[in-house]
Amino acid sequence: MIDAYTGAGVRAAEQPLLDAGHGDILMRRAALGLSRVCETHLRRANRKGLLSGTTTVILVGSGNNGGDGLWAGSFLRRAGVMVTAILTGSTAHPQGLKALRALGGSVVRLEGQGSATDPNTAPDASIAGFHALDRGQALSTMTSAHLVLDAMLGTGAWGGLRGEAAALVEDFNAIRRESATGPRIVACDVVSGVNADSGEAPEPVLKAHATVTFGAAKVAHVVAPGEQLTGHLTVIPIGIEDRLEHPSVYRLEAQDILAAWPRPTATDTKYTRGVLGVVAGTPSYPGAAIMSTNAAVQTGAGMIRFLGDASTRGMVLAQSPEVVCSDDQPWDVHVQAWLAGPGVADDESQAARVQAVVEAQEPAVLDAGALTAAAQSVADGRLGAHKILTPHAGELEQVYEWLKGFGVTDDAPDRTRIEAAPVHWAREAARLTGATVLLKGATTIIASPGSEEQDQVCLSIGQASPWLATAGSGDTLAGILGAVVAHVAEHPEALRRLGEWARGDGRWAAAAALGAGVHALASRVDGEGPVPPTVLAANVRRVLRTKGQ
Ligand SMILES: NC(=O)C1=CN([C@@H]2O[C@H](COP(=O)(O)OP(=O)(O)OC[C@H]3O[C@@H](n4cnc5c(N)ncnc54)[C@H](OP(=O)(O)O)[C@@H]3O)[C@@H](O)[C@H]2O)[C@@H](O)CC1
Ligand SMILES: Nc1ncnc2c1ncn2[C@@H]1O[C@H](COP(=O)(O)OP(=O)(O)O)[C@@H](O)[C@H]1O
User: Fold this and answer.
1) Which intervals hold domain YjeF N-terminal (predicted)?
2) Domain span including residue 511
3) Smallest Cα–Cα separation from 457: which of 436, 483, 434, 480?
4) Do 307 and 448 fall into the same domain?
5) Ligand 2 atom closest to Cα of 390?
6) Is 440 annotated as a binding residue?
7) What is the pTM of this model?
8) How far apart are CA 339 and CA 349, in angstroms?
């Protein structure tokens, strides 16, 4: 599990050490770790695996992030690397600058670059004497290097890159799009311009092959869009780790997912495993019912009760004879949890069943066609953490429109804004609806609503293949989620090994995260390639059969 923190969370842990005058030591530890990672990349760039003869360009901002870059440059110089620092701010970290120059690193500044607050600010006296490169010269220095270290902006930055530094990155990216070769890019702490706390990434950004961060991962490393720009993440311990308190986001990795996945014991029966009721599909859209029930079967649900019309029931049974089908109403059947909504559109009887599920006491996964009913019900009160909404960004936009319509919020983001800051909007939606929200995307975000008893829990799941972007993989996810939620409904303590946060209301977020995690793992069972939903569902069995505990 990766515990990811906000910049403020890390600063709070650092503060006592900074107060005690250990700031320089922290920076040098950070920079040493950073230089080691750069060395690994540089050795790969040299046919003989040597460092001498390799070149590094460091883009150096005005703050401590730039200081880390300059110190790392001094360590690389010691190892025989040719280092050029291009200063992109109106000033530069004095000790770092001195250290790099003492070891023969060259330092130049980017012409026309001022401070963030005032782009017209002239370079201050301490750097004014350095030779100035215009953008074209800086660009060719960058493109001819083996490695570019991005140390312009870290956790102290606000907004994206600006001015000449932004134009330089834009020009560099244009060249990069045209050419398969070019320098390795390593980011110091976070990719410059990416908001460390939210993962927002205003253009332009220098997409990294690797990022080296200090003390702990930051939120931007585990949520989109920051995660997709981070590359391989290395966390360098700098001596603050024991002082870190509350992570902002938990990232569950494969081993966490498999170890925590609830498995039946000898005393279980099909009922204690959890019976899942499914309201999905209509005569016009039967596929969603087939795929979601099949996925729940492959996930090992104790029992599945499907409610729907005769023709859809026939198709569900043809695919999965294990499913018990009827045209009952939700209040007629006894289940531990519900899954409602996949493929439910323009059908009065299924819409009525969905409404009954939204109003039912039992936990429920509310997907696709159930999201509107769920959002509308917020007008009558909060849904409860045991109701799990599973929108993609477009569906979350619609949920927000309903919430705005009911006066629950003034700010209804559109899809673009949601995709720019998914962790923020998933958290906000959970808080406003009182439900657990699972926001789908390249990174899946899960947020609990939070309560007086328990802080909001936020999780992220990566590892999913982009081949999942195909119609029906969401229906498969819904079936997997239904199965695990039904189990957790019967075994409230089943997920406690994940942490204290996975108890109480947090258990629904934990269950949803495990479901999304298994779905992601199933997408890569046979490596990278197409995973049609039927294959994806079958892969779930293979994922769960691997040794995980
Ligand atoms: N704390 C510690 O002990 C440790 C911290 N560590 C390191 O410190 C980093 C945080 O350092 P930080 O706080 O100095 O912030 P940082 O990100 O370098 O930027 C600040 C300056 O940049 C500027 N600026 C801002 N926005 C801008 C923009 N959009 N576009 C252009 N410029 C912009 C603005 O200055 P201005 O140009 O306005 O004068 C501002 O003052 C952290 O990420 C980690 O690498 C490690 O050494 C481990 C120990
Ligand atoms: N680029 C991507 N990378 C990884 N996973 C993705 C990507 N795009 C979509 N997914 C995943 O695929 C699934 C698609 O769900 P959804 O859009 O509801 O599909 P449908 O309703 O057609 O079944 C979600 O689990 C989502 O997280």
Assistant:
1) 10-246
2) 254-545
3) 436
4) yes
5) 18
6) yes
7) 0.94
8) 16
